[in-house]
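Format notes (please read before filing issues)

Several people have asked whether sequences and structure tokens are stored in separate files. They are not. Every record keeps both together, in the order shown below: the sequence lines, then the token lines. Line labels are part of the format and must not be stripped during preprocessing.
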Amino acid sequence: MDKSPHLSKPVIERRLREKWAEVMIDSFGVSPIEAERLVKTGLAGKLKISASNDSAAAAKILDAGIAYALTQIIEYQMKKTKIRTQDDLTSAIQRMEEVREKMPSATRKALKELSKMLPRRGGPGRQPKLNRSEASKACDHISTFIRQGQPLKHALVMLAEKSSPLLGKKVGARTLQKFWDNRVKLTSE
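Then the structure lines:
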């Protein structure tokens, strides 16, 4: 038979919430109440704006969002857990202390995994200098120079010098070399 004194539900919930608040402040620098206020007032939705202006504010908002989510999980667990005695409460508080120890590394690991799921920054990359028809036309000119007996390197330099009137824009020899190397793709597609 358990000789530990029974505690009232309000006392248990208050002690657990106090301990959880310590864990959240220690781990994220924000109390569960402050985290909820930041999330519910919509400040967390301004993360993009804050990130561009103030990285410290953005970090605080991100920490608040994580703290709020973890607090919601703990609140749910508190409702399901059957803590009735002082020994049960001590055991639950010990588990929270263990969570405090593991929280920073677990959070970093979770955020690293989450960041892998986010779309990469930027767009499709650098656009080619010449479109498909211009590149095909450039390859035709290069092959004409080669048929006239010019070596490839000289043909590329000659076309680069005459690219404005022939192609409508200035293009360098290295760029022309890249199109020449991929000429099979131009004709096959």
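For reference, the curators noted about this record: The chain has a mean pLDDT of 81. Residues 47 and 54 are 10 Å apart (CA to CA).
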